[in-house]
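Researcher: Checking consistency across runs. Here is SPT6 homolog, histone chaperone and transcription elongation factor again:
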Amino acid sequence: MQAFQFEQISADPDKPLADGIRPLDTADMERLKDVQSIEELSDVYNHFLLYYGRDIPKMQNAAKANKKKLKKIKEVSEEDGEQDIEAEEQEEEEQKGPDLKLASRRDMYSICQSAGLDGLAKKFGLTPEQFGENLRDSYQRHETEQFPAEPLELAKDYVCSQFSVPEAVLEGTRYMVAMQIAREPLVRHVLRQTFQERAKINIKPTKKGKKDVDEAHYAYSFKYLKNKPVKELNGDQFLKMCLAEDEGLLTIDICIDLMGVKGYGSDQTYFDEIKQFYYRDEFSHQVQEWNRQRTLAIERSLKQFLYPQMAKELKNKLMAEAKENIIKGCSRKLYNWLKVAPYRPDQQVEEDDDLMDENQGKGIRVLGVAFAAGRDTPVFCSLVNGDGEVVDFLRLPYFLKRRNAWREEEREKKMQDIENLKKFLVSKKPHVIAVAGENRDAHMIIEDIKRVVSELEQEMSLPSIGVELVDNELAVLYMNSKKSEVDFRDYPPLLRQAVSIARKIQDPLVEYAQVCSTDEDILCLKMHPLQEHVVKEDLLNALYCEFINRVNEVGVDVNRAIAHPYTQSLVQYVCGLGPRKGSH
């Protein structure tokens, strides 16, 4: 673009530079090099489009013509035959595509520019760059130049078909000045910082919100907000506000000034603060008229362009921060699940040679107990050896019945299940019994099992067996997953859940890795109330990072992974492997 401007000016050096042309200088290049964020890059790009957008097709057509001209000169120098040149020219004419045409832009700024209002806009006394420096330094570094004529008189010279009266000319000129100020990167940078520091949020309920948002609703705590500083928002608050707004319950307004305060006392508006940087401090009628035009231009720039754009930017930023907070919360929740070490029995139990029988598998043996809601459903028990393999299982169809049931038949069947459980415990000798925390019936089951264990200790001197309550959210997810159907095709769903319960207390890291597969089952775990509102890929990446960190902290036994396929899911999280290499 700089070279194109140079060619245009060099074509007629004596011709004065038109008001609508803004030379592209090195300061613009340096500004592009100093860009540090997406917002700053967008500011520079929009600033470029404002001044040079209409020249881009001309520049591209000129570059295309120069390229062809150079190519032709090069070919002429290499070949002496005129016939070859004529043939080449004819071929180029046939292959030549249509030149780029100017886009038919009919926005307000283009109309004002076509009407030649650039010249009047330059007479406002400060360039947008100078106003931006005044704003950045918070004092009038550049004095406002005063043109020796009243604005209404000057406007008469620019009357045309589009702007038929001087007042319309001034209106269009103010629009141009406001747009130039709003597109100036330095002005936007200063205002962005100030807006984010001072922004306040105001919330009012809609007619629907007044009716639906009660004390039990998630939006009740912010049903009414007035002048709440945005920087005081934390966690996922703003995402909840936006969800309520999407549901039509609330209206959210983000502004820089205090609502209901119109600049009295020390609470002046931001517009009152910055308009003095565009003033000329004189009292003649001519200066006052120009000051009024400048004030109207700044006010329009703020209220029509900058404030809505900054509010939208801040809203997107707050939304991104809220979603990032949710992802961090999910990662922290998963970290707390994965950091739990494998279950260790009491020291006295570990030293018992009879209980630590390697013939039944090295390591602790766990009996997982799973049940469903309803007293008529059976209880399933699954015994898992030290390697995580299922060695036996037990079905107790009447274990959920009460010991003191009214019907004698139910009491007898309950006692029969208790005897079956005793025989199973005596023969299999598990180190710990893990009971799924499905509902309140889990407490009754735990009490019955503890009573059975206590009786065995007294009658047969059996070492103490721990009884633990285990959250079954992961087990229910595994029970319904495709992987469990492949691993235990002939097992009923509750027995699969019992297997997962036992494996979870045995080694939580291995069991959580079972659902972290290509099916993305892990997203079905409830780690945060709003986790479904974040980008799925971002959440999965964060969860994978937690698995990678934990697996590389504790390591993976490769020989065990080969011998016991259910532990192979950990191999993919070893640094340098990944899902593809880990599967082989």
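Researcher: Does this match what you'd expect to see?
Model: One thing to look at in this run: The two ends are 55 Å apart (CA to CA).
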